[in-house]
Design goal:
The protein is of the alpha/beta class. The protein has twelve helices and ten strands. The chain has a six-stranded parallel beta sheet. A four-stranded parallel beta sheet has the order 1-2-3-4. InterPro entries: UDP_glucos_trans.
C-alpha cells in the first residue's frame, strides 16, 4: 500500500519537509504537555519575554497559564542550557507548522482545557492522550524475562498494606548523582516505610558512574524495600498498596500518576520536567516539590528528602 500519512516527532522536524515534497500528509506527535508546547511556541515567535543572557531570572507569563518562575520554564529555553542542540531540534518544527495537518498531542481537554483552547486557535491541535499501552498487549507479551520481572514486583506489592509503599523511579534517561542517591537511600531508611525503587544502569554515553547504594543499606532495609532495574509502571501505580510516587516529572509518567490517582513527590531535572511540577503541585494539587531542577540538588546539607516521605502517607 502507498503511504497515506506520516507521523513524526519534534526532534526530526525535517520529516514534514520530506512528506510535503512527496505530497504525503504529515502530522507531528507532541509527547509533552500543551503548556510546554505553548512555551516553545511563544519563545520561537518572540511573543513574550523569556530568560536571556542579560536577564537570566526573567519570569514568564503565558496566556491562559500560571506565571512560570524563571526556573520553571523548560530548561532547554534557558540561555545557559548545555543542551542547546535539543532546543534547536525542538524549535525546528515551529519553522513550518503550516505543513503538518495537525499536532497530535499527548494530553486531554479536561486536563489542560484553557491552554488547549487558546493554542488551538493558533495551531491545528488534536488531543490524543493519555497514550498508555494497551492492557491486552502487556498480558499477551511473549518476553519471558519482562513478564517474570513484572510478576515479581506485583507479588511483592501484594504483601504490603494499602497506601503504604513509596514508589521511586526517575525514568529511562535521568540518573542521580551518587550524593543524591545516598540521600534518597538514607531518607527511605530513616522513614521506615516500605518502598519499591527502580534503579537503572546509566546510559553508556551519559557520563554517569554505576550507582552504588550505601554500605549495608539492603541488609538494614530487609523486606521493607525492593530494588529493581525495571518495573511494570502502569500496573505498579494502579496497585492499591502504592501511597506516592517519587519521580523526575516527565510528562508520560505524570499522566500515568494522574490516571491512577497517585500523589507525586516531584524531583525534576531538565527539559519539561521543571515545568510539569508547576501544574502537578499548584494547579492539579496532586504533588509536593522536592527540588527545582538542576539549580537545586538534594545534598547532605539540606536533608529535605529525609523529611518528605511521611508527608503524603
Amino acid at each position: 500500500r502507498p503511504v497515506s500519512c506520516i507521523i513524526n516527532n519534534p526532534f526530526i522536524p525535517w520529516v514534514s519537509d520530506v512528506a510535503s515534497s512527496l505530497g504525503v500528509p504529515s502530522a507531528t506527535l507532541w509527547v509533552q504537555s500543551c503548556a510546554c508546547f505553548a512555551a516553545y511556541y511563544h519563545f520561537y515567535n518572540d511573543l513574550v519575554p523569556f530568560p536571556s543572557q542579560e536577564k537570566t531570572e526573567t519570569d514568564v507569563q503565558l496566556p491562559c497559564m500560571p506565571l512560570l518562575k524563571h526556573d520553571e520554564v523548560p530548561s532547554f529555553l534557558h540561555p545557559s542550557t548545555p543542551y542547546a542542540f535539543l532546543r534547536r531540534a525542538i524549535l525546528g518544527q515551529y519553522k513550518n507548522l503550516e505543513k503538518p495537518f495537525c499536532i497530535l498531542m499527548d494530553t486531554f481537554q479536561e486536563l489542560e482545557f484553557e491552554i488547549i483552547e487558546y493554542m488551538s486557535k493558533l495551531c491545528p491541535i488534536k488531543t490524543v492522550g493519555p497514550l498508555f499501552k494497551n492492557q491486552e498487549d502487556r498480558l499477551d507479551s511473549n518476553i519471558t524475562t519482562v513478564c517474570s520481572k513484572a510478576e515479581d514486583c506485583i507479588q511483592w506489592l501484594e504483601t504490603k498494606p494499602p497506601t503504604s509503599v513509596v514508589y521511586i523511579s526517575f525514568g529511562t534517561i535521568v540518573s542521580l548523582e551518587q550524593e543524591q542517591l545516598n540521600e534518597l537511600a538514607h531518607g527511605l531508611l530513616n522513614s521506615g516505610v516500605p518502598f519499591l525503587w527502580v534503579i537503572r544502569q546509566p546510559l553508556d554515553h551519559a557520563g554517569f558512574k554505576e550507582p552504588v547504594l550505601p554500605d549495608g543499606f539492603t541488609e538494614k532495609v530487609g523486606d521493607k524495600g525492593k530494588i529493581v532495574e525495571w518495573s511494570p509502571q502502569e500496573e505498579v501505580l494502579a496497585h492499591p498498596s502504592i501511597a506516592c510516587f517519587i519521580k523526575h516529572c516527565g510528562w508520560n509518567s505524570s499522566m500515568e500518576a494522574l490516571a491512577c490517582g497517585v500523589p507525586v513527590l516531584a524531583f525534576p531535572s531538565w527539559g519539561d520536567q521543571v515545568t510539569n511540577p508547576k501544574f502537578l503541585v499548584d494547579v492539579f494539587k496532586v504533588g509536593i516539590l522536592m527540588s527545582r531542577g538542576e539549580a537545586e540538588n538534594v545534598t547532605s546539607g539540606e536533608r529535605r528528602s529525609r523529611n518528605a516521605w511521611s508527608r503524603p502517607l
